[in-house]
Amino acid sequence: MAKTSNINIRIDPETKTRAEQLFAKFGITLTDAVNIFLHQSLMVGGLPFEMKQPGYNVETEAAMQKNFGTQ
Fold first, then answer.
1. How many CA atoms lie within 13 A of 56 on its CB side?
2. Which pLDDT value is given to residue 29?
3. Per 3-state DSSP, what percentage of the chain is helix, strand, and coil (rounded to 5)?
4. What pLDDT score does 19 carry?
5. Domains held by the chain: number
6. pLDDT (tens digit, 9 = 90+) per residue, 41-53?
7. Over residues 20-36, mean pLDDT
């Protein structure tokens, strides 16, 4: 299939550089990685990974509960 559409995204330069370096280790470009992400999203019918809230260790959770009343 011919690639004829463009997507413009804004991202901080450091993140872009680090991602390009990471994907280069796999022999792919940032564009290739975005295409893989989009195709995988279509195959699974959503994001191709699980999204979760960050987890904290027991001590941090206790301190947050004590100081901020969060769970």
1. 10
2. 97
3. 55, 0, 45
4. 97
5. 1
6. 999 999 999 988 8
7. 97
For residue 27, what are its two tokens?
Answer: 């022999």
Write out the residue range of the structural domain in which residue 39 sits. 12-50
**Can you say whether the dihedral through the CA atoms of 8, 12, 17, 22 is positive or negative?**
negative
Report the alpha-carbon distance of residue 34 to residue 20 in Å, rounded.
11
Structure letter (DSSP) for residue 2:
-
In a domain, 20, yes or no: yes
Residue by residue, DSSP assigns 8-58 as -----HHHHHHHHHHHHHTT--HHHHHHHHHHHHHHHTS-SS---PPP--H
Residue 44 lies in a domain: yes
Give residue 70's pLDDT band: very low, low, confident or very high (50, 70, 90): low
Residues 6+ apart with CB under 8 A from 42: none
